[in-house]
Each structure stands twice: as structure tokens, then as C-alpha cells.
Amino acid sequence: MASLLNELDLTKQVEDKSEYRERIQDLQLNLLHFQRKILESKRSVILVFEGPDAAGKGGVIKRITEKLDPRLIRVYSIVKPTVEEYRHHYLWRFWNKMPAQGEIVVFDRSWYGRVLVERVEGFCSEKEWNRAYDEINAMEKSLVDGGAIMLKFYLHISKEEQLRRFEQRAADPYKHWKISAEDWRNRRRWKEHLEAAEEMFSQTWTKQAPWILAESEFKWYARLKVLKAVVKKFTQEFGE
Fold first, then answer.
1. Could you tell me the CA-to-CA distances from 179 to 226, 238, 240 in Å, in that order?
2. Is residue 10 situated within a structural domain?
């Protein structure tokens, strides 16, 4: 199986800070413009973010949301299920977070945990994570068929860059909360996590909900790529 992640050019970057800021602001203004159109259309938007720890998901999400009307957007950072959630089908806790008409919901990690970390760490059986591909595809199809706009992003970095960011977080008292023993444990199984991601792409890259892979070795580049992809999708759906 071809490796989509290995084919990414992680050297891509934006070097000019003033250019980066100008382009970000222009894209954020576009997003604000489309937020009103989303509300008036009575459609909904679902943005999904996956990727290795420290790949920059939080920074991208911040740039998407920071200029939008907070009344119409929700961000969910997905961690391990609660005791109550464990008692239900694993998709139950995501269904009740889906956006109402006119709203945008952002998932910082998502239902794909079943075929990523849960698979690698053995939190579910092989039968369960193999079955999950069809379950996830069916859920996403039902949402898109019902009028939702769904964009799925996978932010990717090298193992070396992840280590640099981990060490930076560990040394910064204001970023200690961003690093945990779980992050270091996941890093030890880097290869298995990438293998799981590659199979996830092959099984869940569908017409209604394709994946967008973003080179995130350089954070400015990743942020611009993601925001441009969101604006492009909204333009296709709603016009200029």
C-alpha cells in the first residue's frame, strides 16, 4: 500500500511573516462572510482534525474560529470516554455533538480514535476497529446526505519535529498542560500510528467526505492550507 504521508513534502513553508498575517486575515474575513451564509442556508458544517500529537491542530482551529461569531460555533476536544459514554456505542458521544442547522462544529480529534489510538493501544478488539470503517462511512454519509458540509483534515509532521515540539512544551511553564505521559507513550508507537492512519485513509476516503492532508512541519503553511481549503469548500457550496 502506497504511503500518502511519506509522499507529503514537509519542507513547504511560508517565510514572510507579514505576508502570512495578511493572508490569514483575508481568509478569516472570508470565513466570517460565509458564516452568515451558513446560518441563512440552514445547513451545518463539521470540521474534523486528526494527526500526531503536537502537529498543530489547536493552532489551526484557533485561526479558524477566533474571528467568527462564537454563538454559532462549537469546538470539541475529544479525550477518553466518560463512564457514561463507555456504556454506549462508541459513536453515541459524537452524534449528540453534531451541529444544528446554521452552526459549525469543530472536532479536535474525533470518532476516528476508534481506528487510530484505540486500535494501536488495544482499547478495542481487531473485530471492532475493522467494523468501524463501515460504521463511520455510514454515519458521515447520512450527515452529508442530510445537508451537512464535512471537511476532514489530517495534519502531519515528522517524528523529529514532534520531539522538538515536545521538548519545547516541557521546558515552557506556560505549555506544560500541552504535554502528558500519554503523549510520550504514543510516540513510542509512532510507526503503528502511521500505519493505522494510512489504512484509515484507504478505508474512509469517500466521495462525500474525502481527507485533506496538510503538511504541518511549518505551522504557518499548515494554517494557510487548511483555511484556504475551508474557504474553497464554502465558495463551492455557497458561491462568492
1. 24, 40, 41
2. no
CB 151 within 8 A of CB 212: yes
Element (H, E) at 193: helix 190-204
pLDDT digits (tens, 9 = 90+) for 109-121: 999 999 999 999 9
Please say whether the beta carbons of 108 and 78 come within 8 A.
yes
Q: Is the pTM of this model over 0.85?
A: yes
For residues 5 and 197, give the distance between their C-alpha atoms in angstroms, rounded to a whole number: 9
Low-confidence ranges of the chain (pLDDT < 50): none
- Confirm whether 240 is domain-assigned: no
Number of domains forming the structure of the chain: 1
Return the CATH number at 146.
Answer: 3.40.50.300
Q: Give the alpha-carbon dihedral of 4, 183, 136, 88, to 10 degrees.
A: 170
pLDDT at site 61: 98
Q: Establish if 1 belongs to a structural domain.
A: no
pLDDT of residue 175: 83
Cell of 109: 480529534
Give me the pLDDT at residue 2, please: 65
Asked if residue 171 lies in contact with residue 240, where contact means CB atoms within 8 angstroms, the answer is no
Nearest Cα to Cα of residue 12 among 173, 174, 216, 179: 216
**Angle 57-65/219-238 helices, nearest 10 degrees?**
50
Per-residue confidence (pLDDT) for residue 103, from 0 to 100:
98
Q: Which domain holds residue 195?
A: 17-235
